[in-house]
Amino acid sequence: MVYQFVFPDSELCTPFYLDFCHHAHDGHLLAVGDEDGRTTLLRTDKDNNADNAEYHHSFYCHKHPITDIKWSHNDTMLLTSATDRLVRLWDVEVQTSLAEFSGHDDIVKSVNWHPSNEHLIVTGSKDGSYRVWDTRFNQRPAADPNDLTRIPVYNPIKVVPDAHKTMIPRGGKRTGPRPQRIRSVTCAMFLNKSEDKIISSGSTDGSIKVWDIRHGRTPFVIASTTFATETGNTRGITDMKLDSSGQRLFSSCMDNHVYMHYLSDLSKPAQKFSDPDYKIGGFDTRISLSPDDRFLLSGSLNKGLFVWEVDHPNAKAQQFEGHSEKVTGVSWNKTSMFQFASCSEDFNTRIWNFEF
């Protein structure tokens, strides 16, 4: 099935990112964030003909393009981020905003829920920071306490600036290193069910870091790894995913590989996935895992989707063709091995059937 979205003037609109729900409608509910700041909810167990229009709904979340979208674990809420630097929390049933998270100084690149505590959220941004938010704390005072229409706005409970800043030698007569320009945090997420450990990835330092952010102390790195070429040039990370056990970390790298690390040893990857045709087109390329962790899915610059069997990393990837431009967002149905979705710069969102 193929879906397209349009601006109010009927011009085609690019879908950027998507996420399958966890259990609602047997897992066949897909949220798609697009260039116009909308979220569209698609029932992927229904055909895309006009008779089924009642099963698909769109609503505006931001005035700027969506940069990430994630379902809560009970499927009642959605988190969205956009190029407006804001993160918003939505009630899916009535499609209204429940809260806003404000404080980033540049585009928010990723939003993620805590695996078991839906009060906790972590975001990563192009401003070089990741921030942790808690809907039980740090709500900003209302300008008018009697305004019942006001949406709660939250400040972060933890800010880690310059999470992926590196130092370079200083030239000339001055000595000592000088800081490089701000390095984007491409992804940040909680480490399993811990509330005080965060995994973050960088855009150009090529690093993945595990942080201890316990209250009352300065956050510090407890483990890390860096991706670099033989000449020492670092290659950025575009996305990360943990498997369902929380023991294996998958990361897509700008060197056109996806790596798998055991969190017990980040020093070197345990597996590496590649293909002669596989090219990552930029930091908007995402990855996803099948619900049984058996298969790994990625978008690509090559207009196709690539699927690897995790236990056979050296085997050639299975390719899915149909898009005519770069594939960015991908999501595997969380309840079915046999369905995943993708969106592309060709303006199309596609639902795929998978056989193995």
TrEMBL record:
KW Repeat (keyword) present: yes
Domain of life: Eukaryota
Coiled coil spans: none
GO BP: proteasome-mediated ubiquitin-dependent protein catabolic process
Annotated Gene Ontology cellular component terms: nucleus
Record key words, sorted: Repeat, Ubl conjugation pathway, WD repeat
Pathway note: Protein modification; protein ubiquitination
Intervals holding WD repeats: 59-100, 101-143, 195-221, 320-356
Signal peptide range in chain numbering: none
Matching SMART domains: WD40
Family named by the database record: Belongs to the WD repeat cdt2 family.
Name this protein carries in UniProt: Uncharacterized protein
